[in-house]
Write a structure and sequence with these properties.
5-stranded antiparallel β-sheet; 4 helices; mainly beta; globular; 9% helix; 6-stranded mixed β-barrel
């Protein structure tokens, strides 16, 4: 896509993803427009999206993240595969309430509670397939999350094994999900060994909400798309 668009290469930068860390070309673009938001003099890093395309089952040209969220009110409705981009100057929250949103290296983080009456901070991952929740290695070890838990499956994603089992419950924005299939990292390096957060909450749970992000004011709103207070995805 960078070659087709004839973007100007201005250097190279390190890129870290679930596939590892590598040095990739950096390009500049005069203008990017998404809905009502225009971003001037944007920077793009080149990334091989072949594995992402294979996982999605469709061809995408790139990924736009924080630079858009930092400038707009972004509404994500996972259940209907829809994203709405709002001009923050003209936006009013007509449903739901604002809650605190933390940014960890520009990734959205919220507080959630789960079995054992534990409370921790979790990254929101709206690109994680149908995953419900993944616990990072440090949380798994410190809280003994695998002790006595029946293991359903085990896979290796490149940085170490991830095991799967059932979590009794997890509560997000006042909504409790019970009998949740969860992933537990044993990785010693990479994103699943992150120590800043307890884990990632994926779209398997987030599809129960419309997520409204307001990065500029550090807040988020969870609007339920289901009316039951207890869910079992």
């Amino acid at each position: 896509a960078a070659r087709v668009l004839d973007l100007d290469k201005i250097g190279e930068v390190p890129l870290t993803s679930i596939f590892g860390r590598e040095i990739r070309p950096l390009y500049s673009a005069q203008r990017v427009q998404i809905g009502p938001i225009t971003i001037e003099n944007s920077l793009f890093v080149e990334m091989d999206l072949a594995q992402v395309n294979e996982a999605l089952g469709e061809e995408i040209e790139g990924v736009i993240g924080y630079p858009l969220f930092a400038r707009a009110i972004v509404e994500v409705d996972v259940s209907s595969d829809r994203v709405l981009v709002h001009d923050p100057e003209n936006f009013n929250l007509d449903e739901g309430e604002w809650e605190e949103l933390i940014l960890d290296f520009n990734h959205p983080v919220i507080e959630a509670s789960f079995e054992g009456d534990h409370i921790g901070q979790f990254r929101l991952d709206i690109g994680a397939g149908n995953n419900n929740v993944l616990f990072h290695t440090e949380a798994v070890n410190e809280l003994g999350l695998l002790q006595g838990r029946e293991i359903i499956d085990e896979q290796d994603f490149g940085h170490g094994p991830i095991v799967f089992g059932e979590l009794n419950w997890i509560e997000i924005a006042g909504v409790r999900f019970e009998g949740v299939q969860a992933a537990f990292s044993k990785a010693e390096s990479g994103p699943f060994a992150d120590t800043n957060t307890m884990g990632n909450i994926g779209v398997g749970l987030l599809s129960s909400f419309r997520l409204i992000f307001d990065y500029q004011n550090g807040r988020i709103s969870f609007v339920e798309v289901q009316h039951s207070s207890t869910h079992s995805p």
